[in-house]
Structures are given as C-alpha cells and as structure tokens.
Amino acid sequence: MDTWDLIKTKLADRIPTESFNEWFADSQQVFSENGKITVHVPETYFADFINRYYKTFLQQILDELKITKEIDFTTKSTSSSQSASIGKEFSHSQDISETTPKIRFKKPRFNENYTFGNFVVGPTNELAYATSIAVTEKPGYTYNPLFIYGGTGLGKTHLLHAIGHQLSHQYTDLRIAFLSAEAFMNEYIVAVRTKKMDQFRLNYRNCDVLLVDDIHILAGKVGTQEEFFNTFNELFDRQKQIVLSSDSLPKDISRLEERLMTRFSWGIIADIQPPELEVRIAILQKKAEKHKIQLPDDIALFIAKKIRQNVRELEGALNKVIAVAKLNDKKITPALVKKSLQIYSNDNENLTPDTIIQYIADFYKITPGRLKEKNNSASVVLPRQIAMYLCKTLTPLSYPEIGRCFGKKHHTTVIYGVEKIRKKIKDDPKFNRLIDSFKISIK
What we know:
Blueprint: H1 3-12, H2 17-23, E1 28-33, E2 36-40, H3 44-53, H4 55-64, E3 70-74, E4 84-86, H5 96-99, H6 126-137, E5 146-150, H7 156-170, E6 176-180, H8 181-193, H9 197-205, E7 209-213, H10 222-237, E8 241-246, H11 258-264, E9 268-272, H12 277-290, H13 297-306, H14 311-327, H15 334-340, H16 353-363, H17 368-372, H18 378-394, H19 399-405, H20 411-427, H21 429-442
Parallel strand pairs: 2-3, 5-8, 5-9, 6-7, 7-8
Antiparallel strand pairs: 1-2, 3-4
Helix pairs in contact: 6-7, 8-9, 12-13, 12-14, 16-18, 18-20, 19-20, 20-21
C-alpha cells in the first residue's frame, strides 16, 4: 500500500461513501519524491474541487500520519505548475475562483428566437431591456444582481435567454448556468437524496453567470432557500453575474426569507408591464415577418386591441389566425380574425376610463378634472388612486395607457397608486367592501 492509498483509507472513514467514490476512488499515486506526493485525478477540475472542499480533511490526515510532504493533484495532461497542492506549504489564501479550470460544465441551450434583436422595446419594458444589455457589457460589475419582475408572458424569460445568448457569443469560455427556480429546487432535492451535494454545489458555485427564471417559486422552500442563499453569497462575493426573474417584487414574495429579499434588492430591480398599443402592433408585425406573412395594419390593430395584457397570448392569437387561414386556404381578413379570436372576449370592453373617473368623481363630490391635474391633496389623491385601481382591474388598459387618461401621468405613478389601493383592500375589510360596491355599480 503506497502513501496515497493509506491516506485514502483514512479519508473513506470520514466522508460520505458517495463523495469518496465521486472524487477519490479513481485517483492514483504516481510517485512520491522531493517532498511531494503526486496524485493523478481523472480531470483537472477534480484537483480544484478537492482543494476547495476536502483540504481540511486531508491536512488532518497528513498531520496524523506525520507526513510532511505536499499532495500534488494533477492529470496526465497537466503540468505540475498548473496542478493544485495540499500540504504544509500550500497557501490557504489561494483564490479558487482564479484557478478554477474549465470544468465539465453543461452548456445551457438558449431559445434561438429569444435574442435582444427579437425583443420589441417600448416604454413599459425599456428599463428591463437596457439593464439586461448593460450586464452583458460588464458581467458581475454592472447591476448585480439584476432582478426583473412582471406578469406572465411579458418577456422576462425572453430577456434571460437574450442575456445568455449575448454572453455566450461575447465570451466563449464563460460558464453560464441557466435554469428555472423549480429546476434548481428539484436538483437540490436529488442531490440531498443521493448525497451528491458536493457535485451540486460545484455546478452552481463555480459558474460565471447564474440566470434563474421564476425565483418566486422558492418561496416557502426552506432547504432550497438556504442552499440558494449560500450560492448567491458565493457568486456575489466573487463578482459573478446573477440575473433573476419573478412575477413579483422581492418584498411582495410571500414566505421568502428576509435575507434573500434583501440580497435580491442589492443591485437593480427592473419591471416589465403590459405593452402599449403601438408596441403590441410592432410585436405582431415582427412575429408576422418571421412567418413570412404580410399582416395588414387594420388586422394588427384589431388583434392588438383584443389582446392587451400578455405578449405570449398576443403571439398565440396571431398563430391561431395564421393557422386558421392556412387550414382553410384563405387570406387573413377582419372577418376571419374575428371568428378565430372569439375566445378572447372582453367582458368590460365597453367600460372606459372616463366612465370610471366620472363615477368616482361624483361619489367623492369633486370634478373629473381634479383627478387628472397635479394635485396631491388628501381629498384628491385617494379618489385618484381608486380610479386608477378600477381602471386597471376593470379594463384591459396597460399602466401607461391609464396614466395618459389621468393627465399624462407616468406609468410608475399609476403602479404606485394601484399598489396602495391593493394594500388598503388587504388591510381594511371596510374599504374592501367599498371597492367591491364600486365594481358592481360601475359595471
């Protein structure tokens, strides 16, 4: 039995069998001379992983056996100058991030349609778009973490794919991890069950860019949150880029640990809201071009007015129209579109913002004009916010469209007002009943 086999025997008693088999079973001593034990491992990244997670165990064994030699891990294709050593003279301050090799990292597959070039930019998503572009220019240093939030089907996933595309083209050696929060949770559960947490951590704590979709899914998952917290810290401390998407602001994700909520807000938070009419038309025209179809302006306008809240649904509606036209060998006409999109009915399509504003103004005994002017007195602010909330819940208008109905107010003012009313409804049952009565009476 050579020296390394003796060390391995002791090591096998101190770490899980699965971990030993994964990282040490195939290692072999090559020679022992000049104060060094040279050990071959299958891949270069084994050396860095062992150095990072098992250095303490090995040093204890070396001390017990009174071995003063260093252990030099290398592969057949690696020179000793590139290998990682463990022993009395090994520098404990060595930064693993600087020596991490190109490990066997599974390259993510990005949707070829989800690029920055295919993303239609407008007032409701320009911040998310601009910050996404920025992180690709200097990953890890600009807007880290980047937290993108918004409703379903508005383009959050598109931007994550676009970031991945751009970075993979700019930096061919960059290690990018892209997955959903649900996938992260499932992989964590499997790693715990199979006792392969070391491999799991290697995968995500040694990447250069971490892109996680639907991070709100981690809410209430205590173990997964703990693991993600540690992964986040590891990457952030090493200035690795983190991009997260969610359907809510960090503070609005229920059962999300305070420490994660805080960290998600460290960089920049960018929202995506439903697109305006002009942007929806542009999206339809762009999608139609991909199908090599000429979409008449009146058809695009009709569909854009019908589908207001969800870009994915907007694309689905166009796909349905195209499919119906091809199946029946017909041209895309207003009649065909109306028949194809009957399912997309709007119960409140005849309800206008002016009707809502007039109703609320009458109830609070003020003129409709006061709700639209720059007036922040208490007698105006609450009625205005209620009217904005009702416009958002009873009509398909986007935040910018509602803002224009209230004296060209910025869409963030509308968002703030709507959120204030939602909170008041949640906290005050009496106020909740009042809003319900407004909804019934206006309809």
